[in-house]
Amino acid sequence: MRLFNPKRAFRVWQRHLKVYTKLYLSSLTLNVVEPVLYLTAMGLGLGAYLTEMDGMPYINFIAPGIIAYSAMFAASGECTYGTYVRMTYQKTFDAMLATPVNLEDLVTGEILWGATKSTIYGTIIIITISVMGLVASPLIVFAIPALLVAGIIFAEMAVFYAAVVPGIDYFNYYFTLVVTPMFLFSGVFFPIEGLHPVAETIAYFTPLYHLVNITRGLASGALPWGDMLWLLVCVVVLAPLPFYAMRKRMIK
Amino acid sequence: MDTVEAKNLVKDYGDFRAVKGVDFTIRSGEAFGFLGPNGAGKTTVMSILYCMMPPTAGDVTVLGMDVVKRPSAIKALEGVMPQDDNLDPDLSALENLIVYARYFHIPPRLSRPRAQELLRFVELNDWADTNITKLSGGMRRRLILARALINDPELIILDEPTTGMDPHGRRAVWDNMENLKAEGRTLILTTHYMEEADRICDRVAIMDRGKIVCMGTPEGLKDSTGTRNLEDAYLKLTGRRLDEGHDA
Ligand SMILES: Nc1ncnc2c1ncn2[C@@H]1O[C@H](COP(=O)(O)OP(=O)(O)OP(=O)(O)O)[C@@H](O)[C@H]1O
Ligand SMILES: [Mg+2]
Q1: Which of A78, A174, A193, B124 lies at a C-alpha separation of 20 to 30 Å from A155?
Q2: Does residue A157 surpass a pLDDT of 50?
Q3: Burial call A223-232: b when 16+ CB within 10 Å, e when fewer
Q4: Residue B85 Cα, ligand 1 centroid: separation in angstroms?
Q5: Whose CA is nearest to atom 2 of ligand 1?
C-alpha cells in the first residue's frame, strides 16, 4: 500500500472546506436544532420523571452525550453520502486523480474532512450546552481534540462502507444498523452498565461509547485518559480499511 | 527524449483484455492522435498515460518516468481533459480553475490571474462567476480544456476534446490546440472526427479491439490506402479489419 502525502491530502481537505464555506456555512446553526430537540425532549421531558441519573439531573447527564452524538452524525453523513456522491455522480475523485493527488491523498482528505465536520458540529454543541449552564467543568474544552480523533474513526468507518456499497440506497442500512444502534446503546441516554452483559460488551467496543465517556468525564472535571487511548488505538487499527477498499474500488 | 514510451502495454478489466499489447512512442512537441471505433481502447490507453490506473503488463514511461513508480511527479507536468465531464458542480467556472490549481500547489494569488487568462483563451471570460451547472455542454468542454492548462503542462492529454461542440466551438478549440502546439507542448488526443485528426495530428495510431492496427502520418495513411482524405483511409483500414472475421 502507498502512503499518503500530507500536503496533497490537505489540498483535498481544502476543496471540501471551500465548498462547505461557500454553500453550507450559512446553515451551520441549523445543525444545532436536532441535537437540542433531543436534549430538551429527553432531558426535560423524560427527565421530569427521573430524579437523577448517575448523581446528576438527567439533562446534565445526557448533555455531554449529545456532543458525541452530534460528532458521530456529522462524520457519518459526510463520509457516506458526501463521499459517495463525490466518487460516483460528481466524479470529483476522477478530477482530483488526474492531478498530483493520488488515491491515498484523496482518502486521507476525505477522512480528515469528515473528522473536521465532527469537530465543528461537536464544538457547536459544547458551546450550546455551556450557554445552557449544563457543563460543570471548563475541562470540556479538551473534548475538542477528542472530537477530532473520534471523528477520524467515524470517517474511516463511513469511507470504508462507501467504498464497498454498490449503490447509494445502501447507506440506509449503515444508519439503521450501525449509527442508530450506537446512538441508542453507547451511553448517551443511560449508563451501559444497565444493559445485558453481552450488549454491554458490544457497547464497549464502539467508538461512541468512549467518546461519550470522554465528553461526560471532562464535563464533570475528570480526565478520561483510558478512553482517549482507546480511540487513538482504534484510529490506527481501522486505518487500513478505507484505503484498501477505496483502492480496490477506484483503481481498475 | 521521447515524451511517451509504451512497450507491450496490456490492460485487463477483470477477465476482459481491453488493450492487447501495444507499442508506441510519442516525441516531444508532437501532436499524436489515437483513432478507432467505440470500445477500441483509446480512453484506456489515455488513462494509463495520466496514471489513473496502472497497466496490467508492459512498460510505460511518460516524461522519462515510470507510470507505476512516479504517478504524482508525472501528473504534475500533465494537463488532462478527460472524456467524461468531471467539473465541480458546487463551484463557478473561475472557482473550478482555482480549486483545481490548488491540487498542483498553485496558490490562488498565482492561479487567479492565470485562470482569468485561460477563461479568455477559451472564450468563457463572461462566464467566470457562473455556476458550471448553468453552462452548456460545449461551454463545459471548453472549461475543462482551460482547467487542463492551469498548471502550464508540458504534455496535454485530450480525450475527445471537441465531442459535443458546435462548429464554431470546434474551430475555436482547434485554434487553441494549434496555439498549444506552436508553444512546443506535446499533445495526445483521441477523436472520432477525422478532419480534426488530419488538421491537428502529426501522427495517428488507429486502434481496433485493443490493438494498434496501423500508425503513421495522416498523409502516409492516405497514400498507403490510396484515399484522398483521412476519413476514407480510416474506414478502409478499420473496415478491412472488421471484414477479416471475428476476433482472429
Ligand atoms: N472500467 C471498466 N471496466 C470494465 N470494462 C471497461 C472499463 N472501461 C472500459 N472498459 C472496456 O474496455 C474497452 C475499451 O474501452 P475504452 O473506453 O478504452 O474505449 P474507447 O476506445 O475510449 O471508446 P470510445 O470511443 O467509445 O470512447 C471497452 O470494451 C469497454 O467496454
Ligand atoms: Mg473513450
Answers
A1: A193
A2: yes
A3: ebeebbebbe
A4: 16
A5: B13
Ligand 1 atom 4: the closest Cα is on which residue? B13
Across A4-14, average pLDDT: 97
Chain A residues close to B71, C-beta within 8 Å: 102
* Distance of alpha carbon A140 from alpha carbon B95, whole angstroms: 38
Give the residue, out of B11, B38, B52, B158, with the most ligand 1 atoms within 8 A of its beta carbon, to mutate for a pocket test: B38
Within 8 A of A23 by CB-CB distance, chain B residues are: 90
Task: Give the strand pairing for B31-35 and B186-190.
Answer: parallel
Q: Is residue A11 part of a domain?
A: no
In degrees and rounded to multiples of 5, residue B214 shows phi and psi of -165, 160
Return the pLDDT at A150: 98
Q: Which helix (H) or strand (E) holds A25?
A: none
Which is more confident, A31 or B159? B159
Q: For position B248, what pLDDT does the model report? A: 39
Q: A125: which 3 cell numbers?
A: 454543541
CA of B203 to the centre of ligand 1 (A): 23
- Does residue A252 form part of some domain? no
Mean pLDDT, chain A, integer: 94
Q: pTM, whole model, 2 decimals?
A: 0.94
Strands B78-81 and B186-190, sheet pairing:
unpaired
Per-residue pLDDT of A33-82, as tens digits, reads 888 898 889 888 888 888 788 888 999 999 999 999 999 999 999 999 99
* Count of the separate structural domains present in chain A: 1
- Chain B CB contacts of A5 below 8 Å: 72
Reduce the DSSP state of residue B126 to 3 states and report it: helix
Binding-site residues, ligand 1, Cβ < 6 A: A 252; B 13, 16, 18, 36, 38-44, 83
Domain that residue A232 falls in: 24-242
Report d(CA B246, CA A121) in Å as an integer.
60
What angle separates helix A143-164 from helix A207-219, to the nearest 10 degrees? Answer: 160
Question: In this structure, what are the phi and psi dihedrals at residue B57, rounded to the nearest 5 degrees?
Answer: -150, 165
Cell of B160: 475527445
The pLDDT assigned to B242 comes to 52
Rg (CA), chain A: 18
Nearest residue of chain B to residue A93 (CA atoms): B86
In the DSSP assignment, the letter for residue A237 is H
Which value does ipTM take for this structure? 0.92
User: Is there a domain that residue A52 lies in?
Assistant: yes
d(CA B10, CA B56): 5
| Distance between CA atoms of residues B112 and A192, nearest Å | 55
Residue A1 lies in a domain: no
